[in-house]
Specification:
The protein has 396 residues and is α/β, with parallel strands linked by helices. The longest helix has 27 residues. The relative contact order is 0.19. The chain folds into 2 domains: 275 residues, Zn peptidases (Aminopeptidase, 3-Layer(aba) Sandwich), CATH 3.40.630.10; 111 residues, Alpha-Beta Plaits (2-Layer Sandwich), CATH 3.30.70. 35% of the residues lie in helices and 27% in strands. The strands form 4 sheets. Strands 1-2-4-3-5-16-6-15 form an 8-stranded mixed β-sheet, with helices on both faces. A 4-stranded antiparallel β-sheet has the order 10-12-8-13, covered by helices on one side. The radius of gyration is 24 Å and the shape is elongated.
Length: 396
């Protein structure tokens, strides 16, 4: 396989500039979840140019491509997500977002460009592997219910049946040229909660005549922290955070209601349901004890993401061969979430991280920020490693 390894590297170098151009096109033309029409059209155009057959309009804007090697039954799926975020970009770069208030601040432009580069490499090397590569260009990772579960429900893992799936996500904590991974549980489940606390508003100078929902909400916010500090098993990572408080009063007006919105993150489904119960009980009982009424709605989001132990061990070994052991890092569990998790509960899966950081170039911003950017040399690593992993999983 050594000559094939060299060939993959050569093709990654040869396709690098075009892959950079593709990434910059996606970056300049970001689209929000469920509206990735232009993105989908551009992907279809590129797959057509590469001679790769594909199916469109899966989960609305998703695309499935197929690359066939020699005769064989095994099928490896490769997944990239498509959507951008509602963030106004502040980077001063030639390919800055041209869509006001929308930006690829989570690196999905890199995921798409890398997968197209990988697809092109694999199309060139199809005589060297057996079976089929299924390319999954997935919409709506950033917004519940997520494009992954929708594509699964529409049969993305069948016809042909997928044996294992590989995904990649950019990571500002690693320098470009490096990758990271973790076997087993890696990313948390994600739920959202919406609490409406109703009291009786009025003049702020006559609090005795009111039932103050602001004071009640303050007690509720503090009480919710007991879930993680006193109710959660100490060995089980748990996050309950209030990220939005809407009161809409005035300096001298107490409003009738306050809305609280936040997230729940953990790694155990049974405890996850218990958190929902604790949160509902605490918010309701505190509010009612202070004379108000409370409504709690919890939106069930993505499950926790679990990387298959055996598959991830193989992926790590492939990466060490291609990139060198010094460029392959072990990662800690993360409280962020990813809808790739749905795939990980359906079949053996591995989501690894691609380093994008370059302090010399000033590329250090975190995900979901207005100054997020990547060292584009990561694209060469991204497409070559995914091609190398795939060929090793389907080698003759």
């Amino acid at each position: 396989m050594e000559n094939l390894q060299d060939k993959i590297k050569e093709l990654a170098v040869a396709f690098f500039q075009e892959t950079v151009s593709i990434r910059r096109h996606f970056h300049a033309h970001p689209e929000l979840s469920c509206h990735e029409y232009g993105t989908s059209e551009f992907i279809a155009q590129k797959l057509s140019e590469y001679g790769i057959p594909f199916t469109r309009n899966v989960a609305k804007t998703g695309i499935i491509g197929l690359i066939k090697g020699k005769e064989g039954d095994r099928v490896v799926a490769l997944r990239a997500d498509m959507d951008a975020l509602a963030i106004q970009e502040e980077n001063q770069i030639p390919y800055c977002s041209q869509v006001p208030g929308v930006m690829h601040a989570c690196g999905h432009d890199v995921h798409l460009a890398s997968l197209l580069g990988t697809a092109r490499i694999l199309q060139h090397l199809s005589p060297f592997f057996r079976g089929t590569v299924k390319l999954i260009f997935q919409p709506s990772e950033e917004t519940y219910p997520g494009g992954a579960i929708q594509m699964i429900e529409e049969g993305v893992l069948e016809n042909p049946h997928v044996d294992r799936i590989i995904g990649m996500h950019v990571y500002p904590g690693l320098d470009a040229g490096k990758v990271g991974m973790r076997p087993g549980k890696y990313m948390a489940s994600s739920d959202e909660f919406y609490i409406t606390i109703r009291g009786r508003g009025g003049h702020a100078a006559t609090p005795d005549l009111n039932i103050d929902p602001i004071v009640i909400s303050a007690h509720v916010i503090l009480a919710l922290q007991q879930i993680t500090s006193r109710l959660a098993p100490p060995v089980l990572p748990t996050v309950v955070s209030v990220g939005r408080v809407v009161a809409n009063g005035r300096v001298n007006v107490i409003p009738d209601e306050v809305k609280l919105e936040g997230i729940i993150r953990t790694f155990d489904n049974r405890w996850r349901e218990q958190v929902h119960e604790h949160l509902t009980r605490l918010a309701t009982s505190i509010t009612e004890s202070m004379g108000g009424t409370c409504h709690v709605r919890i939106a069930h989001g993505y499950p926790f993401l679990v990387n298959d132990e055996e598959l991830t061990a193989r992926v790590k070994s492939y990466a060490e061969i291609l990139l060198g052991k010094d460029n392959v890092n072990d990662l800690e569990m993360r409280m962020t979430s990813e809808d790739f998790a749905y795939f990980s509960h359906a079949l053996p899966a591995c989501l690894y991280r691609l380093g994008i950081r370059n302090e010399t170039k000033g590329i250090t911003s975190n995900l979901h920020t207005s100054t997020f950017n990547v060292d584009e040399t990561c694209l060469e690593t991204g497409m070559s490693l995914m091609a190398w992993i795939t060929i090793n999983e389907l080698k003759t």
